[in-house]
Design brief:
With about 550 residues, the chain is an alpha/beta fold. About 55% of the residues lie in helices and about 20% in strands. Strands 9-10-12-13-14-15-16-17 form an 8-stranded mixed β-barrel, surrounded by 5 helices. The protein has a 4-stranded antiparallel beta sheet with strand order 4-5-3-8, with helices on both faces. The protein has a two-stranded antiparallel ribbon with strand order 1-2.
Length: about 550
């Protein structure tokens, strides 16, 4: 049997005596030390030598030979002995060395991951135990980082096991490159790694390492000719703290990782665009990750008209993706994928830059100035960088906050009302107007609606489409409009598609509207061509406004 000594090395335990053959077999099967193999070789050599000498001498003395013949046969016996022993010992050494190599591989495999070559769970727990003991002895802290890798299951599903193994190798390589020599990397599960940073590791270094590792996956990895976008979430736990053993510390790292994933990977589901195959879907996602850097996102403008006088008062900037070979894609084809993969902040950053640049062109093209609105998601609300990007883009384009609006869906606001209120307050301080988008589809309370510093309610298209023939729908729209006005808010109806809907909304007192009745979303040049009078440099009003207003 085997046991571990104080230094963690494997030893051969005392074996009970069950006969020489049994002892030899046990020693050969269990032992992993070169010294023991050398002893076995020497023992075999000694036994065979004694047998050869004894048997050959008996045979020689039993024959009736002359002294000269005896001398020649003795010399022949000596050379024969050397030859036979060389063959036997060589074969024995070969067998024992092969067995030793197998045992070494078995020992290595018991503590290493077969795919990545890093440590496995057993090695991780051994290192955690060692770090705990050292920390308790020396009073020094150590750090544990748990890394969760996203998208691996999709690589396996799309590119097979070999593709998944290749991806794991590259992921492990990038992680290892970001660590010091004394740091230990182990693969715990299919998509989870553990890093043990030994005692004398301060908190700043641990968090710095976690951030550095994240930047190593900004570039996609290449698997079977397909670029795969990989994201990691990393939790940091400093030990020993109040954790009694390595198991408790591992549980703490798991809990911290779960918190990080919930905070950092807000997802709207795993909806996918209709593509040819799962391999295409993976390639599509990788192309989406790179789209912002390649400036492939476009903004199309949908005009917003006043229902009081028909004047053009603003436009909503709606994102499109100019895919390199699929053409112009609407948001429904890629936004759900971006939400699931965590790419929304990159898209929002591109939208902010393009929208501010576009608003500068609109302001220079005509008077009066239009208000341009952009959309923020719940993920954008949670990121302080979003407002800073908006502020810097406005400053670079030289536009005031009054020329911009930020639209946030009702459900997005209610995901974290306290945080939403802080963001809306900062927007107001920047002079940027705020609108609640898709109002009526979420679960907001009137209390929160009263507390949120917003300027506009955008009533969802589901309340507007075909409402002119629905008495209850009309009553509901009237109630929403009256309530908003009583609270000092403007109202805008989305999805207006018929002149009857337009006339009804004007009669109910809505302030503005947008929809395909007026115009579909258009690129900037077409928007200017359709809605700008080049001679007067004034915006063209909606022609049906006078007839529809009571």
């Amino acid at each position: 049997m085997t046991r571990r000594n104080a230094s963690g090395q494997t030893q051969v335990a005392d074996l009970p005596y069950r006969g020489f053959r049994h002892w030899l077999r046990e020693l050969n099967s269990r032992c992993n030390r070169p010294l023991a193999y050398g002893l076995l070789t020497a023992l075999a050599y000694l036994i065979l030598s004694l047998l050869w000498i004894t048997l050959s001498d008996r045979i020689l003395f039993a024959t009736d030979l002359s002294a000269d013949e005896m001398r020649r046969l003795s010399m022949l016996k000596g050379w024969g002995f050397v030859t036979v022993m060389a063959v036997i010992v060589g074969a024995l050494v070969y067998v024992l060395q092969s067995r030793y190599a197998e045992l070494q591989d078995a020992i290595r495999n018991s503590s290493h991951d077969l795919v990545t070559g890093t440590g496995n769970r057993r090695a991780a727990m051994d290192n955690l135990d060692w770090a705990m003991q050292q920390s308790q002895t020396n009073g020094q802290q150590f750090a544990v980082l748990m890394v969760d890798v996203r998208q691996l299951h999709r690589v396996n599903a799309s590119l097979g096991r070999s593709g998944g193994d290749q991806a794991l190798l590259e992921i492990a390589r990038r992680l290892q490159e970001g660590l010091r020599k004394q740091d230990m990397l182990a693969r715990l599960e299919s998509d989870k790694f553990l890093i043990v940073m030994p005692p004398q590791t301060d908190t700043a270094r641990a968090y710095g390492t976690a951030m550095s590792l994240s930047t190593r996956f900004e570039r996609p990895i290449r698997v079977h000719g397909v670029e795969v976008a990989v994201q990691i979430a990393t939790s940091v736990v400093v030990g020993p703290g109040d954790h009694a053993d390595a198991g408790e510390l591992l549980d703490a790292a798991e809990a911290a990782l779960l918190h990080v994933k919930k905070k950092g990977f807000q997802s709207g589901g795993e909806a996918q665009a209709a593509l040819v195959s799962s391999r295409d879907a993976l390639q599509f996602e990788s192309e989406l990750r790179l789209a912002a850097g390649k400036d492939e996102f476009r903004l199309h403008l949908q005009p917003q008209f006043s229902l009081r006088d028909g004047s053009l008062i603003g436009a909503e900037a709606l994102v499109r993706w100019q895919h390199p070979y699929l053409g112009l894609l609407p948001p429904g084809k890629f936004i759900p994928i971006a939400e699931a993969a965590g790419f929304i902040p990159d898209i929002t950053a591109a939208v902010i830059q393009n929208a501010c640049r576009m608003q500068r062109e609109l302001a220079d093209a005509a008077l009066p100035e239009l208000n341009l609105s952009i959309n923020f998601s719940a993920v954008d609300l949670a990121m302080t960088e979003s407002l800073e990007r908006l502020r810097m883009a406005m400053q670079k384009a030289g536009i005031p906050g009054s020329q911009l609006s930020v639209e946030i869906t009702e459900s997005g606001l209610m995901r974290d009302p306290a945080m939403a209120q802080r963001v809306l307050t900062r927007l107001r301080a920047m002079g940027v107007q705020a609108a609640i988008d898709d109002f009526g589809t979420g679960h907001s309370s009137l209390n929160y609606l009263n507390r949120f510093p917003v300027d506009l309610l955008k009533v969802d298209r589901s309340f507007v489409s075909g409402v002119s023939d629905d008495e209850r729908g009309i009553a509901l729209l009237r109630a929403i409009n009256d309530m908003a006005h009583a609270m000092g808010l403007q109202t805008l109806a989305e999805g207006v598609e018929t002149t009857a809907d337009h006339a009804l909304l004007a009669e109910l007192g809505f302030d503005s509207a947008q929809g395909f009745l007026y115009s579909p979303p258009l690129p900037l040049d077409e928007f200017l061509e359709q809605h700008l009078d080049p001679e007067t440099r004034r915006w063209i009003s909606y022609p049906g406004a006078a007839a529809s207003r009571p």
